[in-house]
């Protein structure tokens, strides 16, 4: 039996609203369980800093999450990643 490899999720392949934080975690920090766990545990701190909140029936808005990280790391229109 072959061992399944953890595949990364491309951030831009996520839907407009991401219903599950674990899917967002996989796209943001990668497929490793420990990294995802740390990122998920940091959500309250991130939300206190302006990270988009999870809304009932929608989830988190993917473009707003990207905009949050662009602002956090000082990326302007010329240096933003796809």
TrEMBL record:
Superkingdom, natural source: Bacteria
The protein's name in its UniProt record: Uncharacterized protein
Species name: Methylobacterium hispanicum
């Amino acid at each position: 039996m072959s061992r399944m490899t953890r595949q990364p999720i491309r951030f831009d392949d996520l839907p407009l609203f991401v219903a599950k934080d674990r899917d967002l975690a996989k796209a943001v920090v990668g497929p490793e369980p420990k990294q995802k766990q740390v990122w998920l545990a940091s959500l309250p701190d991130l939300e206190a800093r302006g990270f988009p909140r999870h809304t009932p029936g929608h989830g988190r808005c993917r473009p707003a999450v990207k905009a949050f990280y662009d602002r956090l790391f000082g990326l302007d229109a010329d240096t933003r990643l796809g």
